[in-house]
Amino acid sequence: MSVLVERVSGVEMGKSLRVLHVSDIHCATDRLVRVLRGEEYDVVIASGDFECVDTAEALVNASSDVYAVTGNLDNPAVYRKLNSMGVLLDGRVVVFEELYIAGVGGLDFKGSLAKLQRELGELQARIAILVTHHPPKGVLDEPREGLHIGLGEVSNLVDRLRPRLHLFGHVHEKPGYVVRGETLHVNAGPLKRGYYALIETQSMTVKIKQLK
To answer: For domain 18-210, which architecture applies?
Structure first.
């Protein structure tokens, strides 16, 4: 399946990029490798729940730079692997193609958020892409109708940073997109079930895809 998003007024990236967004792989290493080898992209962003160290290691199959946050079901071994590979974004701000990318991990959410807040305190540039594992409260966060499990802290961070693009996962039942204000929110869906997202930043077009 795919969901195409028309360009929305007020959502501007200022840079033409093809972003491959994956999340919630849950040890489905073969599916991650298939996507990394089968798609064309400029950067890979993973929003957590690798669960297995070899799944995190599979990011070496990417044909571009990679950035990743941990998920709530990841463990310290996954954290260390991502860190040793130089792709860990938990509590960090990086610059890619002149765009600032910030991340909050799910393994130690509060610690990661606090670390990012310290980095942001010294940063004057605007964050273009925010990567979290958890969704903001009320945005693609319903595992079933009426039950919202997004985090208010993520909502507050989005309100403060006003990123052009916010990438997350965690809620397997809600792959898709929502535009709120100046921000395009994307939940790639669980790669464990074959879902992933491709985002074209020039036209702000999102395609949610599923492996056959």
So the answer is: 4-Layer Sandwich (3.60)
Q: In degrees rounded to 5, what are phi and psi of residue 120?
A: -65, -30
Structure tokens, 80: 């260390």
Structure tokens, 95: 């610059």
DSSP sequence for 72-84:
TT--HHHHHHHHH
- DSSP code per residue over the chain: --------TT---SS--EEEEE---TT-HHHHHHHHHHS--SEEEE-S---SHHHHHGGGG-SSEEEE---TT--HHHHHHHHHTT-B-TT-EEEETTEEEEEE-STTHHHHHHHHHHHHHT--SPEEEEEESSPBTTSS--SBTTB---BHHHHHHHHHH--SEEEE---TT--EEEEETTEEEEE---GGGTEEEEEETTTTEEEEEE--
Q: State pTM to two decimals.
A: 0.94
- Rounded Cα distance between 178 and 181, Å, is 10
Averages of pLDDT over runs of 10 residues in the chain (212 residues) are 56 83 98 97 98 98 98 98 98 95 97 95 87 96 82 95 95 92 93 96 88 87
